[in-house]
Amino acid sequence: SDGDYWRLLNPGEYRVTVRAEGFSVSSKVCAVGYDIGASRCDFVLGRSNLSRIKEIMQKFNKQPISMRQRARQRRLPDT
Known about the structure:
Blueprint: E1 12-18, E2 26-32, H1 50-59, H2 67-74
Antiparallel strand pairs: 1-2
């Protein structure tokens, strides 16, 4: 979905952070010049997988999954 936001700012550089539910946070430096008119600072947000991470964490009682432990569990016993 598209979203617009505007703010009157004095000329300079500003670090802008954008957040939207269901999307990853994004930050960048935006420059506001002395020219007449608006200075654009566009962002493209990617979908977040936070809900999937929460689902997995809940399944494992909110314990981080150790990749080493997982690999050991998958190995076949030596015979």
